[in-house]
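Please review the protein record below. Tell me whether the encoded fold seems credible here:
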Amino acid sequence: MNHCLLEVEVLEAPQVRYTQDNQTPVAEMAVQMDGLRPDDPPGQLKVVGWGNLAQDLQNRVQVGQRLVVEGRLRMNTVTRQDGVKEKRAEFTLARLPPLGAVTPRGLPTPGAASQPRPAAPAPVRAAASAPAPAARAVTAPEPPTWNTSPLVPDLPDGDDEIPF
């Protein structure tokens, strides 16, 4: 199955065009991803979104923005101006998760809005006599327990047959 989640940085603003037959919107943009190792160069990729996703790309995405894209990869063969055929990767967008803050794992934070939030007011200092809140202890979740009892109840002595 070809399904990918990528954290990317937008290099070019999405360009929207329309198909000739039924005027379906198609958006294309160039993005880059960090290399796997610190010394690897960033990889570049073309992202294509169709229909409502094309409209979302045009309305919500800006150059320099980091976002998570979900979809599938495919290889296209392109003939350059000098006649040489070249293979290029293309990412077809299937879903654009909510934009907002990106966690270190590359997934959007739940409920993150696409609009920047206003700065929080400075915290008010508590009076010296107020006790400090107790730190909450973090405990590891309980491991699951399994019912290992037999599926058939114990039968009285002498009964070899399983009742159905």
The radius of gyration is 27 Å.
